[in-house]
Amino acid sequence: MSPKRRIWLSGSLVALFGVLAAGCGSDYVVFHPAGPVAQSELNLIVLSTIIVGVVIVLIWVLWAYVVWRFRDTPDNKAPYWPNWNHHPLLEVFVFVFAIGALVVVAIPTVHKTYVLDRIPARHPLVIDVTSLDYKWLFQYPKQHIATVNYFYMPTNHPVLFELTARSPLSAFWAPNLGGMEYAMPNRVLPLWLEATRTGVFRGRNANFTGIDFWRMTFMVHAVPNPVFSRWVSHVQAKRHPMTRAAWLRLLRPTVTPPLQYSSYPSWTFPQRPTEFTVKGLQYVPTKKP
Amino acid sequence: MDIKLWTLHLLKVLFPPQVLLPDIVAIDIGLTVATIVIGAYLTKTRKWGWLWHEWLTTVDHKKIGIMYLIAALIMLFRGGVDALMIRSQLIAPNAHFMGAQQYDEVFTTHGTVMIFFMAMPMIFALFNATIPLMIGARDVAFPRLNAISFWLFAFGAILLNISFSIGGSPSAGWMSYPPYSELLYNPGVGENYFLLSLQIAGIGTIATGINFLVTILRMRAPGMSLSKMPIFVWASLITSSLVLFAFPPLTVALGLTMLDRVFGASFFTLGHQGMPMMYVNLFWIFGHPEVYILVMPAFGVFSEVVPTFSRKALFGYEAMVGSLLAISFLSYGTWVHHFFEMGAGPTVNVFFGLSTMLIAIPTGVKMFNWIFTMWGGRIRLTVPMLWQLAFIPTFVVGGATGIMLAAVPGDYQYHNSYFLIAHFHNVILGGTVFGVLSGMYYWWPKMFGWNLNQRQGTWAFALFVGGFWLTFMPQYFLGFEGMTRRMATYPAGLGWTALNVWSTVGAFVMGAGFVVMVYNILWSRMHPDWDTTGDPWDGRTLEWSLPSPAPEYNFARIPVVRSRDEWWSMKQEGRTDEVKTSEATVRPIHMPRNTPMPIMLAAAFFVGAIGLIFGWFWMAILGGVGVVAALAYGSFADYSEIEIDAKKVLKTEAQLGRVES
Ligand code: HEM
Ligand SMILES: [Cu+2]
Fold first, then answer.
1. pLDDT (average), residues A219-223
2. Does B613 contact ligand 1 (Cβ within 6 A)?
3. In chain B, what residues touch A108 (CB-CB under 8 Å)?
4. What ranges do the domains of chain B cover?
């Protein structure tokens, strides 16, 4: 190996490790799942990256080889076939190769899309999420409490988020826990997530809704069940209820600090079930009344 | 007194606070001065008549192609400046180089300009400059309609581009989803500018689609069966048919949104049972085919450039055509992949995920075929070929990340993040932009008669491609770090800063590449490298059998086509004299007459649009009357064609050395 090549090679290796090491930093939230949904999505991301990575490298190598081998220099000894324009076997091979690579990605895609649509518990904790201009409201219909811009959830317990909006189309995204779902006005969409380790995770609005949209973040506190219960009773006992006036204040287009309410009027969230019900393990759309 | 109040009110409407920012006012002053200087120059050199007769009223496809090209380059500059503003804002956390409102306006304008007013006209520039020459025709099927298309595009572009200094820019993103685009959330005229400018340009685009569809199907030289058409012509044919079916849903979506905003309808509003979701569907039924409208002409360019600069026939012609057809067909069945997260349910998501993956198969086949075309050839590293050589490794990454996005649960994590941004810039820049620039460098001598300096072109290429990789590769990783698109700024401490710095540096390197390219064009204009042969690249298709630039009537003698790479075969078989005329064979040629109708029609549309944008209905009606008047004038005006008599043709051809003795 010539010295120049060696420098190149070691340089690229360092760069590669740099990227890998960077990928292990905890800033790479997608690579640091805290629950089964994010984990399952990450597995698919890794699998598909490997498959397309193979295709990319194959094409790069072939490309580099061809460009070098058939360069137009007078002393190039490579063959010159000006009329070679068909090779049935090669054409079939390319076709089959492309299909094969895709099937490997397609099968787990189908499988996971269905699996992630089923919540693995009959009695999940339900949190109603409303996107407001420019804040997130979280309501616990069973516990009757409400919070703004942060919420607690127990670990090892699936949580069903019911998403709606009183703002333009928003998207609810807490990458450590799993992928996003839109929060749409006049509709209620389901999303389930679960935390298998404790921690505080960041979430944000992923869809542009106006000038302060980039400040619409929230914090997810995943805590052990007893801590969660204690927190709920604390909020129930120590905070004020959400009054009509407080609700109207929330509707104003402002950014607010985290807030808590010991109860809230039920009309602040759309009547359920408007768009879907949780029947057994699967979401079943209901007919409009 | 009344007049005074009224004037004040008008000033307030025309110049709300958002257009009075110091940088915008400075640009306004600069533009005004530039306009005055240009006007004075034209007056002093008495060039108004020339401008009017040679350009503004022309129906010659070659000149229209040049006008499209110039407009597209100007728009590339505009969109590029927006991009650099965006990247400057994002170079550091908590940056407030621009306010959030201005940032929103800038990214909206950037996306809209780049897709509708840069990429589309660039493609139409290539269509106009080459298609008739490649198929052996004297003009397009409907020359006047062609001019109408251009002027509608031009006035649409002007409309969007004046919004930032008069009335305010749109700020709802290039997709402009309701309900954010509703009056309730988005008062002011900016969104109306968006709707009307796209609508006007869109009418022109549909007309261009029809025009080239008919031109290619009906006007090919004798002997050029469909299976003997160059692939670029195939790509243009299929792109035109995509335009024909993809733009109407956009027209509907924009039109209904306009009714909502200007006339108080409620198609997509939150109130009165409007259905915002319907807009999202309509938009992407247009939007996904649109991305293939953008990239297929680039595929076509590469299918011309690779054989020429490898001195070798294209590998797998039938597979190339077949995959173009497959892509165009499949592209109508994938639109839901833009909103897997809107609750369609697993079965719908799986269907659209798989249909999206299917598109990768024909695309992959094409990638391999270009590589096999080079196999056994002799590769010359000219500037057009360099762009194509950069395209292969770049586009394959974009396509690959497309497959990752199509893996539905993966998309739940990538959607609306910088990963998505990286994907589509990877395919649109690596595919469309590399492609049209390759085509521009390739056909430049044919369009203008002189070639671009290759050394400077190589520099521009290297800077642009290097800058591209530096800008967009970090963005994939920003997506994994949880950064979402359209954030006006971001807090420190999330680990996003370093990658953003690289990305911004890359963007400025790309900007430098653009500057070198403009220098390249201006320098080569002043030190022209004349193309006297008409065939500077040793080309294979019919346009290279003509002198550069082609005479007004293109072909004095329409060739009879016998093979796929007809000009190459002529050269190989010593039949090149077939393109020459002689005293015995020369015939008079009929050409369409110039007409001011297209520009008048487009101007009337412009006036009407301003009326609708500001809600001045008398003006909208005036514009509508103008449109009808222009059409009526067009119907009654004198359209007898001009006859170029045989003697004159013979003389022109003799000067070009194309007369058989
Ligand atoms: C192998 C081929 C391709 C596949 C499989 C693919 C797949 C996808 C998918 C699934 C999305 C939606 C992602 C999301 O919103 O979360 C997407 C977005 C996009 N793609 Fe592709 N794509 C491919 C090629 C292209 C090409 C050739 C272009 C344009 C020349 C393109 C332009 C875009 C654009 C503009 C968007 C996003 C628009 C936006 O949200 O603003 N893609 N692509
Ligand atoms: Cu798409």
1. 97
2. no
3. 407
4. 47-595+640-655
| Most A CBs within 10 Å, among B182, B272, B327, B368, to test the A interface | B368
Q: Is residue A92 part of a domain?
A: yes
Distance CA B17, CA B331 (A): 43
Q: Tell me, what CATH number does A62's domain have?
A: 1.10.287
Chain B touched by A239 (CB under 8 Å)? no
pLDDT digits (tens, 9 = 90+) for B245-273: 999 999 999 999 999 999 999 999 988 88
Instruction: Output the pTM of the full model.
Output: 0.94
Determine the residue of B294, B418, B423 to mutate for testing ligand 1's pocket, defined as the one with the most ligand atoms within 8 A of the Cβ atom: B423
Distances (CA, A) of B500 to B87, B114, B285, B427, B650: 8, 22, 33, 20, 62
Give the residue-averaged pLDDT of B554-559.
92
Tell me how far CA of residue A163 lies from CA of A126, A171, A180, in angstroms. Answer: 11, 9, 11
Asked if residue A285 belongs to a domain, the reply is: no
Count of CB atoms situated within 10 Å of the CB of B98: 19
Same domain (yes/no): A35, A143: no
Selecting from B178, B360, B376 the residue whose C-beta is nearest the C-beta of A102 gives B360
- Is the separation of the CB atoms in A213 and A259 below 8 Å? no
Per-residue pLDDT reduced to its tens digit, B512-532: 999 999 999 999 999 999 998
Helix or strand run (H / E) with residue B411? helix B408-414
Distance CA B605, CA B153 (A): 11
Structure tokens at B217: 């199907």
Cβ B432 under 6 angstroms from ligand 1 = yes
CB-ligand 1 contact for B244 (6 Å cutoff): no
Ligand nearest to the CA of B395: 1
Does residue B177's CB lie within 6 angstroms of at least one atom of ligand 1? Answer: no
Domain assignment present for residue A282? The answer is no
Residue A265 lies in a domain: yes
For domain B47-595+640-655, give the fold: Cytochrome C Oxidase; Chain A (1.20.210)
- CATH number at A152 reads 2.60.40.420
Edge-to-edge strands, sheet with A259-261: A189-193, A159-165, A125-132, A135-140, A145-148, A259-261
Domain range for A235 is 125-271
ipTM > 0.90 (yes/no): yes
In terms of domains, do A175 and A265 share one?
yes
Domain count, chain A: 2
The CA–CA distances, whole Å, from B495 to A163, B141, B477, B482, B491 equal 29, 57, 11, 10, 10
Strands (E) across B226-275 are located at none
The answer to whether the beta carbons of residues B433 and B291 sit under 8 Å apart is no
The angle formed by the CA atoms of residues B459, B464 and B468, to the nearest 5 degrees, is 150
Q: What is the pLDDT of residues B313-349, one digit of tens each?
A: 999 999 999 999 999 999 999 999 999 999 888 899 9
Asked if B319's CB is within 8 angstroms of A211's CB, the reply is no
On whether both A106 and A172 belong to a single domain, the answer is no
